[in-house]
Specification:
The complex is a heterotrimer.
Chain A: H1 3-20, H2 28-63, H3 70-78, H4 91-122, H5 132-151, H6 160-210
Chain B: H1 4-20, H2 31-41, E1 48-54, H3 60-76, E2 80-85, H4 91-105, E3 114-119, H5 123-129, H6 134-137, E4 164-169, H7 173-185, E5 189-193, H8 198-206, E6 213-215, H9 216-226, H10 232-269
Parallel strand pairs in B: 1-2, 1-4, 2-3, 4-5, 5-6
Helix pairs in contact in B: 1-10, 3-4, 3-9, 5-7, 9-10
Chain C: H1 4-19, H2 29-65, H3 71-89, H4 105-123, H5 125-136, H6 142-157, H7 160-167, H8 173-209
Helix pairs in contact in C: 1-2, 2-3, 3-4
Classes of the chains: A mainly alpha, B alpha/beta, C mainly alpha.
Amino acid sequence: MSGIEILQIWVAAFFTLAIFSFLYKDNPFFKLAEHVFAGLSAGYYVGLVWKSIILQQLWYPMMAGEWLLVFPAMLGALMFARLVPKISWVSRVSLAFVMGTTAGVFLVSQLNGMILPQMQATMLPLVLSEGAGATLMALVMVIGVISTLIYFYFSKEHTGALGVTAKVGVWFIMIAFGAHFGYTVMARVSLLIGRVNFLYEDWLGTFLLIF
Amino acid sequence: MFDRRWIYLLVALAVIFPLIVPATFKVHITPEARQLFDAIEALPDSSIVMLTFDYYPSTLAETEPISVAALHHLFRKDCRVLTMTTIPLGGPSIAERVTRALAKEHGKVYGVDYVNLGFKYNYVAVLKGMGTSIEAIYPMDNSSTPLSELPMMESIRNYDDISFIFVVSDNAIVDYWISIVNAEYATPVGIGVTAVSAPKYYAFISSGQVTGLLGGMKGAAEYERLVKAEGMALKGMAMQSLVHLLIIALVIIGNIGFFASRRARRRATA
Amino acid sequence: MRRVAPVIIAFLSGFVTVISFCFNPDKTVLGGIEPRVLSWVTIVGGFTLLLGVVSITRVNWQAVHRKKEGWPYKFLTLVAMYVMAVPAMLPSSWSPLFGDAEGSIYDWLFMHIDAPMMGTMFAMLAFYIASAAYRAFRARNPESTLLLAAAVLVMLWRVPMGEAFLRLFGENVPGFINTYLMNGVNAAVQRGIVIGAALGAASMSLRIMLGIERTYMGKG
């Protein structure tokens, strides 16, 4: 392992421990790490936009003769009008272009790619020839989807048949949220494993080399 | 009630202990992981597969092992791999580093066996736009080489030329790979996601919109086992097990305390 | 003008993408316009990232200039930002330290400072979730008992030690959890939520296109 590799492990370990120090209490090391993090992340965006948008999508193609790209470049520049209160409304033009296009894609994709296929997959025959297990699964799916949708339907008071269905929905939702909680625990623990493994294997490993 | 920092200490010890005393466990394969593996196995050799790096550095421990195992599988099958990311913070750097390292290991050549498209802003527009023309959205690859100069890209125009999309993600971008790309262009989508998002995507397994699902580090461990490439995920299973058992023990102790104090309160009021 | 023009632009750009769903991009003009519009969106949208960076600079510089509380930290944010950004914008042909390739300042700072910190921030949540599980996860009523039981089962099922424990009660127990809990009850609820959320997203998209929803424009 070279000196520079050891240095980069120590730098990463310092900032890792500085963030972890917040578990004990807020302190200057955490504050330092937090502010460096904010700065570096913002700096990363600048580098990214410079390369992937300004150079790759605007400058190089325009140099190759694609002059129509002047329009998106101008729309992008208009965004900065937001920083000047008197003309900040001008930035709405660019924003409206982005919002409108995104909304158009969204509208079609939500209807065509989410609502219809998900509804279609729920329209199941309730008695299946594959056996009791398949029939039970179909029942769980149909009752679960309908009762969940009804639980989140707030335009009518949950009384009578609606109330009973919503109550069934709560049971379904509680089981699903429980499963979700179990998975969330798993996710957070995995991330901790990643950092602890780095400190134990990589950082402590350098101690053997140094001392 | 004791100081919560004692709990923090217990959690830290539960993670560190298996590192000091290593242990290996058998990881059972779920049908969802098997489905994803089989779908890739069934692809003809040298098929074009898109592998996405739609995750932030914050979830590397969960997602990177999935990407690594996927690349082992794809390169061994001689698939041609097209990588990209929709994540602005770190996505391009991670995609570049992981793909180049694995390509080197498998002796793959950039531009011939794999291409990294990099990042473009607004994932909805990116995903939709690539349906007509990848080059319209990505005129150049991540290293600013025009796509027209890369031999592999000669036969790739849009999703019609891609046999399978392997999405590795830690956020809701998966929804759009399903609702835009799979729904409109019928390209099969397999997903490897963080454990937090995994429960949601079970709904898309039975609807047939997703071909296989890997959930979190356990999903990564399953795939590592399937492709016989032991990595960080399989190693992490011992630590993961111990912390889960600790948390379950804490829940049980907390509930025993809760019921004991409730009983004492009831007795006192009776 | 200040409000009507953006509404018209939002409608037209949305309309093009919706209607082009029905047209072949290779054989029709309208279908052919769509990829161009989408590539323009990726360009224009990217400028919002820069706008955010300018805002950060402004806010932090004002705090430094006026020597507000904690100003040295704000100064550090500015230094970190420019140390990261400036070398990334210089051509790599000048020095391997410039640009964004492996070995550059940009890549080094990201891989060895930014990425580890980001990972650590989220890793800390493991401690908080363990503490919360001990303090707040109670079987107070039938609903919370269901939640707790499902969580415990899934936590056991998703790790090898727990799965081995579950197999003591029957070889099929893990398979049962996968089939009936995850692919059954969980998938049904997630589907209900997905359908509900998609209906909301579709109606919001329509509201934006028709100019009913204008909050993104801000005041004035």
